[in-house]
């Protein structure tokens, strides 16, 4: 029992990283932009938040927890949006290929983040690894009382920092926004059929830019959560964010571009990622094979999706295609 | 609001490159009237209405609404003036519901208030007799439901001048009756309606007035009550123009391709070809006439192995020498391997017949690159062929290594036809071989087809210009809505006769 | 069409007649130069190194000693090899993001031969066997997503991407299996004394064989794509599947065959990495080069000779920036950052090659990068 609770908790932590990434990418893809730079953007979010609070903590004798959180969130969101802006500029305005641009963004941002993650402390004159203990503690503060009071249910539901609930809230809010507002409706039309949207008087370029940039901002929060919660305010150069970032891209397909479906999907991916650790009787070797699980499942999902042609589960029709009015 | 609206188009000219689609066309549209805009394919009807609805900017001429000169730059501008157009290709988002499509692009910064939309849609439906389920997704709708939705959408946005581009082309007779009923209701409600069509009986049935276009020019308008189909046909097709295409008597006719009971459905299950049977002979040019989209494309592609054919059909091919072969159920590779000397000039020249980003030389080997046992392509022969085609057909190209998509339409077609003829075909199929070409290039193409006929090739010529069909072809098969409505002799048939067969199923639709 | 009551300030239109080749390359070179300046400024901003000296130091890092020159050449060949492998897939417009995995399985096959057969098989047959098995392993890894794409149009971008991680975990399994010394969680250098399965020295150089193999592939792939019947089929399928069917090309077969070839060449890259470079295997044997190579192949427009230049440039940048990072005791990852900057510039510059930008006010001049 304890093992299962622990597995679920670990799964929800990873799942939350994936969920932020996937929710942001869902918003982006709804506008017809396929941004393969999600892992890079999550790197950007993680490192920007880390750098922001690093300087705050370094220069403040007694850092205020709320200020820490605010700085981290703001830095992560803004820098991730800049990543999205760069992608938008290249693909929408300069009409570069979306796949190549996304991959380049991942290479660039991975380099950027890992460079500063590994060197920042030295650049700032310190020794050893970068670490922001106060902020990390703030991020990992659970709701007092609840996580212990309700036994195992409480442990499964309430033993996390606020970002876990924020991720759910954003996913639910996005689902509502897309389905219930005029802007959401227009956005769907842009991703489905930009020529029709254009003829209906919708500013296609504006929608694409905004969806891509805000989507990037949301994705970036996943990187921040990974750094502040899972890494406890330190940097890891092993590519953990990148792995989860790619799973986030895959989750968008898994959830059929429905943010709410992404919530349980991401937790499932999170649990699959940790299953090897909790299955009894595995050797160190066979554990490595079991770590394949989330990727194998993704492949199977891709195949099943391609076999089944349900009209409700299809990607936005113009996903990945550029739109220029003059070339219709 | 209830002022009687009128629109006046004065001397509208619109050109696309060298083609003049509208040549100083004038037209008046009145409230409370159904106007038919009649003309053959390519006579400029749709272009003219696209100018009015803000899709195209005219090169010359003026538009007046209630006597005031207006400039229409976009569909939005047109809507603001109460002009709404229902295009042949519906502008709907498939995955959205009817109601969502209706409010698309309206009221940013608001919640989607589908409740109110439903109420207003119901009002519109009740008023004119539409049936629209606001919560149905577009991809679940039939073509006629989509069309209804487009009309409701346009009315919802306040249009009182509705333009319908060939609305009945996709409808069954029952659906057409329903559409006409609501059109009459709208007319009674004071709306102006323009219906673009080339079906005479519909013109007679629904409209109050007919305006006729021919080859981009305005021919005239006439109250429907004062005219008859014969007169309208004359106005539409004009006097037979003599093109002076040489036509030799067919000699040594030999059976080449016999099609029996050919039926083809598209991915939506709609019959594009319905039980087609005919024979094409070596040594003649068989013309295929019909309104665009009557199944011409599917017919040629079915013979070329590019369509899924319904069971029960047979397409037998008899080569110049040797045994006959069955083509149904064969892939293009099979057909090639069977040694069928088939040449095909498809309608979509750069999307199917040629590779736009390759040069003339590389395009020459598209169908012949396999020849020889070497793993490498033979570059010399196609290059020589390219040289020869460029010289003999006077293809204007900067060099043999220029990508063909950079060439003009006529030169692209010369490259394509040149390649297909070079393969010594026993069967040559062409789809709209002279579309968009200038006169000289067209004559080059006619000459090449005649040469093929004289060397015993069976030539199938799908065309849209009746004058050319009548002067070029030995026999003309007329398609109407996927069926053979008649086969006529090219030398004796009258233009009007073919025109009527195109729009009605002939009485004696014998194969 | 929407709210353009005013004349828009700039008008963008597709160039109808292509830009002359020299102008196109002029734009690319200008973009490259601009990106190099930006890179120097970035380095200056981080370490306050005189921007003018940055490239001197980088040159030192890439070509400073004989050994460095050869390592630079070796790594260029590796990147080039992967890009060559990707070229046919991309020419067919098939998004093979799975080079990482295809390299790894090739590397695993090679390493397995070195470990299990070093006592039983003599050198030359062993080398040939390693080559053959790495080709087969890579081909299978490429064929699987190709098969699903051909039959059911399964999304190849994510499929190949996930195949990377499956290969990584397989590799992690074998690393644990072959661990040496026990507990290190690395394989260590394989056959360090006997050097069995290592590339032999040729002309006195450790990496000459790498050069020979990859340059052979460069020429071979160039010829394959440009002059072979299969290469022609790849081009037609990539341009238009409709035209391919019209020309009686079996599209499915071409997709599957091309992906097997693409994977096979990436498998050879794995063989190079294990047998010809590191003589060991780890989960980072591919090390992200499979992604960089995608962009090399794309920017070179599938011309394998242009890929040599781009690979060399990126490896120079890589080695040079690592040199600077190590001088200041900073993270090696700076090289990916600079690579990204350069690629952004080159990607952006393509716009000015394909489109014409006209300004409405003032003289109607064409904008250049």
Describe this structure in words.
The complex is a heterotrimer of chains A (328), B (511) and C (369). Chain A contains 15 helices and no strands. Chain A has 328 residues and is an all-alpha fold. Chain A starts with a helix and ends in a 21-residue tail after the last helix. Chain B contains 17 helices and 20 strands. Chain B has helices at 45-52, 75-80, 98-103, 114-128, 143-156, 173-188, 200-206, 229-237, 296-303, 332-337, 349-353, 360-364, 380-392, 409-422, 439-454, 466-472, 495-503, and strands at 6-16, 19-30, 34-38, 60-65, 68-70, 83-86, 161-165, 192-197, 209-214, 217-223, 254-265, 271-282, 285-289, 314-317, 325-326, 342-345, 427-431, 458-462, 475-480, 483-489. In chain B, the strands form four sheets. In chain B, strands 6-7-8-3-9-10 form a six-stranded mixed sheet, sandwiched between helices. Helices cover 70% and strands 3% of the residues of chain C. Chain C is an all-alpha fold. The radius of gyration of chain C is 23 Å and the shape is globular. Chain C has a domain at 75-300. A two-stranded antiparallel sheet of chain C has the order 1-2. At the A-C interface, helix 3, helix 4, helix 12, helix 14 and helix 15 of A face strand 1, helix 6, helix 11 and helix 13 of C.
What is the level-2 CATH architecture name of the largest domain in chain B?
Answer: 3-Layer(aba) Sandwich
Query: Which residues of chain C sit in consecutive blocks of at least 5 with pLDDT less than 50?
Result: 1-7, 362-369
The oligomerization state is: heterotrimer
Task: Tell me the domain tally of chain B.
Answer: 3
C-alpha Rg of chain C (nearest Å): 23 Å
- The tally of beta strands of chain C, per DSSP, is 2
The chain-level mean pLDDT of chain B equals: 85
Number of helices of chain C: 13
How many helical elements of chain B? 17
Give the strand order of the largest sheet of chain B, numbering strands 1, 2, ... along the chain: 6-7-8-3-9-10
CATH superfamily of the largest domain in chain B: P-loop containing nucleotide triphosphate hydrolases
Number of strands of chain B: 20
- Bulk shape of chain B: globular
How far apart the termini of chain C lie comes to 27 Å
| CATH topology title of the largest domain in chain B | Rossmann fold
Nearest-integer average pLDDT of chain C: 85
Unreliable stretches of chain B (pLDDT < 50, length at least 5) are 506-511
Task: Please identify the structural class of chain C as seen in this structure.
Answer: mainly alpha
H/E topology pattern of chain C = EHHHHHHHHHHHHHE
Helix content of chain B: 25-40%
Q: How much of the sequence of chain B is in beta strands? A: 15-25%
